[in-house]
Write a structure and sequence with these properties.
Strand content: 5-15%
CATH architecture of the largest domain: Orthogonal Bundle
CATH superfamily of the largest domain: Fido-like domain
Distance between the termini: 37 Å
Number of strands: 5
Number of helices: 15
CATH class of the largest domain: Mainly Alpha
Number of domains: 2
Mean pLDDT: 89
Strand order of the largest sheet: 3-5-4
CATH topology of the largest domain: Fic-like fold
Radius of gyration: 23 Å
Amino acid sequence: MKRGPTGEEVLISTVGNEPVRAFVPRPLPPDPPLQIDGLLRDQLDKALLALGRLDSISIVFPDTHLFGYMYVRKEAVLSSQIEGTQSSLSDLLLFELEEAPGVPMDDVAEVSNYVAALDLGLKRLGEGLPISTRLIREIHGVLLAGGRGQHKHPGAFRRSQNWIGGTRPGNARFVPSPPDRIPDAMSALERFLHDMPEKTPVLVKAALVHVQFETIHPFLDGNGRVGRILIPLLLHAEDVLKNPLLYLSLYFKRRRAEYYDLLNAVRMDGDWENWLGFFAKGVQETAENAVQTAKTLLDVSNEDQTRIEQLGRLSGSCLQVHHALKRRPVNTIAGLSRLTGLSLPTVTTVLHKLEEMGLVRETTGRKRNRVFTYARYLEILVEGTVP
């Protein structure tokens, strides 16, 4: 449904004869109300069903926290790649081991900050803090801490005008809200998050909030990443997902042009319904892929465990290292020793055995500070993350 623009364009300056206008969105919910029926209703129902299957993943996957640990890092890599970083999942895992030769350090530090920001959001929700402008600013503060973002006012709403695309606001693809309108716009968004003036179904709420946040663009940098973090946090906060395992960055990355076109169609035409259909399809596809990935990882893990159990007296130590590699599939001898409590010589012996079996691969070719990967396990996780 086309309602016309969902906000107003305000004149912020004139450069020569070129007027510069910024877009200020009206508060949610949409007016006239959303038309959720027919195909769109079916799409939303399928997305919710897929989320239910994802939430029950712990029934078939005993180590859900291990899967979640790696899946969060995959999301961090993908979300950061959308913003132009070139780090891979392997780069991030190496960085966390402080063993990252040749890795673009600014890029991988930004990805690591993304993990920390998401972890902070989950921690604060667990402490009882609702999703709010306060929490959003805290998340942003962690996301831009250190590295290239440290000079872009981490945790603070911007005090200057920004724009998307183009070389200046006058020829930009989109110019978001002026700085003086951001506090009111974010306060209105917070009220909508808290079901004022009316309660909104959670999946619809997540879709609307994502667009509204990206339209306000309240920070100098990091808006896209914060906007994507808000989706799993909202689903977790409203008890749709016990474990926040739904990450849409790969879906957005693969359909980037359509994603931007639909955001613009909401702003200029008020076409919320097409955006909702796109979002619902992404939720369904992403949730189904996450469930399939978890099952594939479980199958690989069980197959390898069965082979290890046939090793005789060495099997006990091998199983401990195998379990540690599921937690951290890129690791060193010292790192695995710390995780398992086994001695360095024992871990070395185990890794040589697992390498003979084709389960583990040494990646450096060095004699010292060697790095080992749980090859098949990592290959499943890195799908779609190559820059």
